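hey so i finally got around to running the thing on that chain from the lab meeting. sorry it took forever, my laptop kept dying and i had to restart like 3 times. anyway pasting the input first so we r on the same page abt which one it is
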Amino acid sequence: MERYLGAVEHSYWLYNQFYPMDFATVAKLQGQFSFDQLSTVLRQVQQRHPLLRVRIAPDAIGQPKFVETDDEIPLRLVARTNDRH
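ok and heres what got predicted. didnt touch it at all, straight out
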């Protein structure tokens, strides 16, 4: 997949150049599984959904576009320290 950003996407990209927006997803999971199993499933989901395999990179004249990458989505396990998080 390779395409230039749409108007709204480009606006968000410009805003992010001055005010970076990072986010994380928190999930409460129950059951028996290993970190490796979670990593494997996340890679499978990433392979199934094209937008989870792209990043934004400039073209030869600096215009941002989506380009496909082999980078894996980072996964980190954080142990709970209390019931509020």
